[in-house]
Prior knowledge:
The structure holds 2 protein chains of 2 kinds.
Chain A: E1 2-5, H1 6-22, H2 26-38, H3 42-61, E2 71-79, E3 82-85, H4 89-103, E4 127-133, E5 138-145, H5 147-150, E6 154-158, H6 163-178, E7 186-194, H7 196-206, H8 218-232, E8 247-257, E9 262-269, E10 276-279
Parallel strand pairs in A: 1-3, 2-4, 7-8
Antiparallel strand pairs in A: 2-5, 5-10, 6-9, 7-9
Helix pairs in contact in A: 1-4, 2-3
Chain B: E1 2-4, H1 10-14, E2 21-30, H2 33-44, E3 57-59, H3 87-92, E4 97-100, H4 106-115, E5 118-121, H5 127-131, E6 134-141, E7 150-164
Amino acid sequence: MRCIQYEEIKQAVKSAVIKANTRLPDDILEALRTAVENEKSSRGRMFLEILLENADIAENEQMALCQDTGMVSVDIELGQEVSISGGSLEEAVNEGVKEGYREGFFRKSIVSDPFIRKNTGDNTPAIIHTQLDLGDHLRLTIFPKGAGSENMGRLAMLKPSQGIEGVKDFILQVVREAGANACPPLIVGVGIGGNMEKAAYLAKKALFRPINVPNPSSDIAALEEEILMLINALGIGPQGMGGDITALGVNINTFPTHIACLPVAVSLGCHCTRRVSIEI
Amino acid sequence: MIVLRAPLNGEDIKSLKTGDEVRLEGTIYAARDAAHKNMVDAIHKGEVLPFDLQGQMIYYVGPCPAPPGKAIGSAGPTTSGRMDAYAPLLIELGLKVMIGKGNRSPEVIAAMRKHSAVYLAAVGGAGAYLAGKIEAVETIAYPELGPEALLKINVRDFPCIVAIDCRGDNIYDLNPA
């Protein structure tokens, strides 16, 4: 049995939320640099250059990349040979988020109730998913996501007869309706299969994967490529004001589903999709 | 480069065309969802607003707290569509410029045409970059709203694009989406 201290988890989460909010992931930086080369609209190129400058300023001055420092999703893979002492895992994560948002001077964007809407003042609670597994590892993915893009996510329970064409049409419809609101160029996370909540979770988890890492199945990887081309053909462009680069990447995750179901969920990530994975 | 400084009149607004690049200078007001709701409630109750809307600019933003030595934290635009329910009344009372990101409703655009107002887009997600264009910040109302308080901010060389002009020409309609 491996013992991990509550305090160690809290400190790791604190550092991770600060890093996530101030440093754009390498794969997205690289994609933005490539996008500047490929964007034909001069206005689009100007926006992309400002976004790269923004990433520099955020890292050098330790400022939040975007003022919407989001609601934090924390995805945990926990080995069942680990015991945690000094407090609960959930509390360690929430306390780490709290301290990180205070020390990082990040916006506190969480309200306590969907109707009363009083700010909790510390950006908690985080949305925590824990998966138990064999082994003695503890891995956490920290994913603060802003509401501009989160609000444009959609889910559809398609008929199996609609097949791949139905899935493609739905994804394109979601991107089209999102327009400028989700801050393109986008990272498009897609979950296909499972049931209703599984599809939504698959879509969100697809955004955790770097955009230069394709789905391990070559068929799905080809679909990712094809959908990226179709999205970029829409002409929405950087900031929704026209151009060739509407999305930087499409990540798809699939799962077995019911004989009567074809669930598909789309979670849109903005150009400032922030994520940090840590292992304790 | 076109420079905008409040207070603005109808003629200033009519000279702006969709796609124009503009720079804001001087005083603008920062307000988002909750501050808009409070202002519109105040108008309906016949109360005096925390500032005179006549000729002014409102930036849809909920900034990060200011780190030591800075006037403000990250401060990019939020999605403007959430303010659509409130904007026509403010335009009717003299608001001339709205700054945010994303498309507006037909009701807002109709009010802009009727009363000569303009909608500018700032670069969404460039919060650290835009914070560098803000020199001073003062909370003038609703401090209890935290990041949604009503702020008076002083900007210098703050870059925007005319997204919808007072004729209703819309930059978001110019692409095939």
